[in-house]
Design brief:
single chain; 413 residues; alpha+beta; 8-stranded mixed β-sheet; 5-stranded mixed β-sheet; 36% helix; 20% strand; elongated; binds histidyl-adenosine monophosphate
Length: 413
């Protein structure tokens, strides 16, 4: 026998039973974003590698280790998109969207690709919903984006989320701060763990996440970036916070929040779920005022977020098969009528199915049970259908011509 093939490591098939949750997540996001003035954008699944090298940043894990890059038959260097912000900025520039009334508000949903070590909630192909607002540096933009993501999680019924909020200031502020932090850490090097010392020059911020007791004591007194913001950045951040307070969105100020992409300036945020393990981030984002000009576009302040559909589905914990309204059980003489009746119900917006494998009536009844349909519809010979409510077992005859209307009423009551 030929060897069986499997989906590539870190990828998965989204089977029918996972679809109700996935569609509810995307549907809810679409409804909320479109009702807030966001238009949908779809960009290619692959882009020039240069876009991510420049946009996401050469020193990030994403660019250094996680990109699926390839050379195509024409010798072009391409990469499966690891994230959505740089592509949306590329599209904004390419289509001259700076000439539109600002800000331009866009949303997207689709697959993204990162060559990460697979584990629960971490995949090599995953799906994100994202929102980007380009062309305004107003704190109202940051607040709108954060409240939208907060409301999305609330409306979906996800409990136990925590919002971490920070501000990174400008690139210059950050550079000066990192120097100050490194000097501080060097001055107390003997008290730090070996791992922290090894990473001191490449990533001193990691020291804030250390479990080591000695390191934690040192970090308690370490300078914090949020205390080093210049007055314009500090005012901006204070304004964002007061807008969140007004909306009743609670957050934990986190001076150590570092995100895995280089483009952030000012506000950064991340929503975590207590229902997830190590991969707790449901979604996150922030402001990226310098990215557009870095990609060759006009100076354009912008902000946005991305949220993982699989992580949200995990936090919801839902797994249910798509539910049918009716399963039609027909005897041999009524098989063709069963197909016509199924289409009549479908055209009236009902979810209906029937046996397509010439099963016995008993076999069809089993199928009706397994399908989780609300009703079974029995068709015998030329007779009118019998409608049975699967839960109560109540059964009655309904004229075929009135069945759809009757069922719709019964379902909506
Ligand atoms: P990110 O934090 O890298 O941000 O990803 C956003 C979300 O995508 C994460 O919070 C997580 O839910 C999901 N995610 C990321 N990697 C994986 C993975 N390997 N498996 C499953 N889910 C994953 C961005 O991508 C930015 N573009 C967000 C943004 C938009 N910032 C500004 N605008």
């Amino acid at each position: 026998m030929a060897e069986k093939l499997k989906a590539p490591r870190g990828t998965f098939d989204a089977l029918p039973e996972s679809q109700p949750a996935r569609q509810r997540i995307e549907g809810q996001a679409r409804k909320m974003l479109e009702a807030s003035g966001y238009g949908r954008i779809e960009t290619p699944a692959f882009e020039d590698t240069e876009l991510f090298a420049r946009g996401v940043g050469g020193s990030t894990d994403i660019v250094q280790k996680q990109m699926f890059s390839f050379t195509d038959q024409g010798g072009r260097e391409l990469t499966l998109r690891p994230e959505g912000t740089a592509p949306v900025c590329r599209a904004y520039i390419e289509h001259g969207m700076h000439k539109l009334p600002q800000p331009v508000k866009l949303w997207y949903a689709g697959p993204y690709f990162r060559h990460e070590r697979p584990q629960a909630g971490r995949f090599r192909q995953f799906n994100q919903i994202g929102a980007e607002v380009m062309g305004s540096d107003s704190p109202l933009v940051d607040a709108e984006l954060i409240v939208l993501l907060h409301d999305l999680f609330t409306d979906l019924g996800i409990e136990g989320t925590r919002l971490r909020l920070g501000s990174l200031g400008t690139a210059e502020t950050r550079r000066a701060y990192l120097e100050e932090l490194t000097t501080y850490l060097r001055s107390r090097e003997s008290e730090l763990s070996k791992e922290v010392v090894a990473r001191l020059d490449s990533n001193p911020l990691r020291a804030f996440d250390s479990d080591d007791e000695g390191t934690q004591t040192v970090m308690a007194d370490a300078p914090k970036l949020m205390d080093r913001l210049d007055s314009a950045d500090a005012d901006h951040f204070a304004h964002v916070r007061s807008l969140l307070d007004e909306q009743g969105v609670s957050y934990d100020l986190d001076p150590t929040l570092v995100r895995g992409l280089d483009y952030y300036t000012r506000t950064v945020f991340e929503f975590e779920s207590s229902k997830l393990g190590a991969q707790a981030a449901l979604g996150g984002g922030g402001r990226y005022d310098g990215l557009m000009s870095q990609l060759g576009g006009p100076d354009t302040p912008a902000a946005g977020w991305g949220a993982g559909i699989e992580r949200i589905a995990l936090a919801l914990g839902e797994q249910e098969p798509p539910r049918l309204d009716a399963f039609i059980v027909a005897d041999d003489a009524a098989r063709d009528r069963a197909l016509a009746l199924a289409f009549d119900l479908r055209r009236h917006g009902l979810a209906a199915d029937l046996d397509l494998a010439e099963r016995s009536a008993k076999g069809q009844m089993k199928q009706a049970d397994r399908s989780g349909a609300r009703y079974a519809v029995f068709l015998e010979g030329e007779g009118e259908p019998q409608l049975r409510a699967m839960e109560s077992g109540e059964q009655r005859q309904v004229a075929a011509a009135e069945l759809a209307t009757h069922m719709r009423k019964a379902i909506n009551s």
